[in-house]
Amino acid sequence: MTDTTKNQSGGEADPTTTRFYLSVNAALEAADTLLGERAIPALSAGQISSGSTAVTIPAATAAGTYYVIAKADAGNAVVETAEANNTRADSIAIGPDLAVFAMSVPTSAGAGGTITVTDTTKNQSGGEADSTTTRFYLSVNAAFDAADTAVGERAVPALSAGQTSSGSTAVTIPAATAAGTYYIIAKADAGNAVPETAETNNTRANATAIGPDLVVTAITVPATSAAGAIVTVSDTTRNQGGGAAEGTTTRYYLSTNMLLDAADVPLGGRAVPALNAAQSSSGPTSLLIPAGTAPGNYYIIGKADADSGVPETQESNNARAAAFKVTAP
Questions:
Q1: Domain shared by 84 and 129, yes or no
Q2: Which of 57, 59, 261, 263 has the most neighbouring CB atoms within 10 Å?
Q3: How many domains is the chain partitioned into structurally?
Q4: What is the pTM of this model?
Q5: Is the domain of 251 the same as that of 176?
Q6: Are residues 206 and 282 in the same domain?
Q7: In contact, 299 and 252? CB cutoff 8 Å
Q8: Rounded to whole angstroms, what are the CA distances from 82 to 7, 8, 17, 30, 78?
Q9: Contact 300, 219 (CB under 8 A)
């Protein structure tokens, strides 16, 4: 404990004692526990005395937030102009406090697949924590609740104040998980084995996209072609998600702008085989430009999974456009 005791009035104060107490609140009362004291020399008007005092927290103190209260002239040795302003309180958290200090998860995963989650669990308070378990859950949001699914766990050894434990854990995504964005939530002391100074800060969440995600990563078209002519278009369709995608069709459309909409003219398509995570399929397709197309600047848009046959983690990133000029027949 470090304190500064001051004589803030105009008279000489004889030597006194500043005592320190442990309290469940900021008000000094008879139930508070004496921890220690410091001798204060005689103080003239405006004079101060600063010092440090080693105090021991009682061993039976339950984990929680407390106050250490310092009281000047604790023995009431000096008659003062005011006797009600002798105390000052500071809060202190006593006991361990386990939290997931850091966590990393893959950005994508597949239903039924296994991913590796890395976490650092820390005792961020002042007490010793016995060994615990950090558990991992699959959730539809970043808040932990009873509906979340446990997918793995890691044993955490006893941790002294400020000590950390880091490790990697293989967790399996349930096979029936529908495509979408989820969260992996890590919870320190998941079994509530350790009484802590705070029980509401044990979790940490990171997002991961589960399922396939088909996109057209490249499309090549000729710079110009006459209306009524056949052109060759090449594309690369990729599954950039974490789950396997069944066979699909990438279709092409003639558009006056870069956005695919109902007014665009279908030109043809290319069958794309089943794609595992991170796998691509490239190939050319012959397309007929309608004979009645007016000369001008257009776009050919390629759309992966054009028939929406595959549930994906994202459905709004399937199209890619390339500029194209149509001349007179």
A1: no
A2: 57
A3: 3
A4: 0.84
A5: no
A6: no
A7: no
A8: 11, 10, 17, 20, 11
A9: yes
Question: Domain boundary residue among 151, 186, 210?
Answer: 210
pLDDT value of position 6 = 98
Q: What does the buried/exposed string (b/e) look like for 290-328 if buried means 16 or more CB atoms within 10 Å of the residue's CB?
A: eeebeeeebbbbbbbbbeeebebbbeeebbbbbebebee
Rounded to whole angstroms, the Cα distance separating 245 from 283 reads 18
Alpha helices (H) in the chain, listed in sequence order: none
How far apart CA 283 and CA 138 sit, in angstroms, is: 38
CB burial class (10 A; 0-12, 13-18, 19+) of residue 286? exposed
Residue from 250, 246, 247, 252 nearest 237 by CA? 250
The whole-angstrom separation of Cα 287 and Cα 259 is 19
Are 287 and 318 in the same domain? yes
Q: Tell me: the pLDDT tens digits for 231-258?
A: 999 999 999 999 999 999 999 999 999 9
Evaluate whether 72 touches 50 at the Cβ level (below 8 Å): no
| Rounded Cα distance, 144 and 286, in Å | 52
> 300 and 285 in one domain?
yes
Which residues are paired to 153 by β-bridges?
A: 135
